[in-house]
Amino acid sequence: MSEIRNRTLQRRLLMGAGVAVALAVAAWRLYGGASVDTENAYIKADKISLSAEVGGIISEVPVQANQAVKRGDLLVALDDYAFRLAVAEAEGHLGQVRNTLLARRADYAEAEAALEQARRDADYYRRQLERHEKMGSLAVSEAVVDESRQQLTQARSRIVINEQKLTSLRAELGGGMDVPLEEQADLRVAQAQLDRARYQLSRTRIVAPVDGIVANSVPTAGELAHDGLTLISLISTETMWVEANLKETQLEHIQPGLRAHVEVDAYPGYQWLAEVQSVSPASGSEFALIPAQNASGNWV
Fold first, then answer.
1. What angle do CA 70, 213, 240 make, to 5 degrees?
2. Residue 78's closest CA among 229, 249, 300?
3. Which string of b and e fits 189-223 if b means at least 16 CB within 10 Å?
């Protein structure tokens, strides 16, 4: 296998004569000036199958089969109306959660102030009740003493109520006012929902991840795309290589790093400088679904 370094004619190699597999001649310069050549070689490129990550009706297919495209070009677009609605709904929910949290923080501050006031009131009514009790019934009527006692009881009740309210609000706020608003669990969940809705909206546009050529089959506008199923395939022109099949007797001196020359019958007179990248430990048939079972001493 040899990597084609001269990329100026890569696109022409793939598009020339409409062939996906081209006949090549590779000649490896070995030690001592010897060379090995073969006509059993094929130009290879990455075939990228692009799938829909979300389902929907195909609204636009601005490319055709065998069309050259650049990285980032639009290949397929899905109807995004429902996805834009989902984003708007998630944005509204995020704003609602934020307002709710702000209201809770305001309630927390109010409950803290009410608790402090209840504690001051309780302390005042306690001291007042002690004074009245010391003065005795001759100086203070029993009704005044009862009123002081009742006011103290009410102040202590307000302390308990506000402490319970603060405990509840502290749990809702994830620990109290010290926790930043953006770290509140409810807000983070709502933000994640918005991020997911925006991501799904972005997935309604399938763009070319590399420079390449659109494969033969393209979808049609109006078709239903299912998430996970391949919609369109792209033959990359950014990385190409040659797979050369050699005889067992030719492999003795072949190793990665050796220089090679590649010629293609479809382009007479052109020659590409290449380099051996790797040598497969087995023939292609060995990796087939049902490997060949050779009784003779053939190379496997």
1. 95
2. 229
3. ebbebbeebbebbebbebebebbbbbbeebbeeee
Residue 42, by phi and psi: left (phi above 0), alpha (psi -120 to 50) or beta? beta
First to last CA, the chain: 16
pLDDT in tens, 225-244: 999 999 999 999 998 899 88
According to DSSP, residue 71 is labeled T
Whole-structure pTM value: 0.68
46 to each of 189, 212, 237, 244, how far by Cα in Å?
39, 9, 8, 16
Q: Which of 259, 251, 244, 271 is nearest to 33 (CA)?
A: 259
Contact call for residues 56 and 202 (beta carbons, < 8 A):
no
Q: Which CATH code for domain 2-79+204-287?
A: 2.40.50.100
Cα–Cα distance for residue pair 296/55, rounded to 1 Å: 52
Question: Can you read off the two tokens belonging to residue 63?
Answer: 């490319």
